[in-house]
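Onboarding guide, step 5: your first structure request.
Type a short instruction followed by the sequence, for example:

Predict the 3D structure of this protein.
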Amino acid sequence: MDHAARLALLLAADQPPANGFPFRVFIVVSVVGGALLAWFLLRGYRDNG
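The system replies with structure tokens like these:
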């Protein structure tokens, strides 16, 4: 069975994940990434005087 067929079977499964750990990791990484992106974008507006 190739990778595409396995992925299709996994996506077709109606079962929720066994625990919420992957979702928690996704949320934490998103929040930290958003904070780093905001810092990176906003640091250009800082007054260097």
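Each response can be followed by summary notes, for example: The chain has two helices and no strands.
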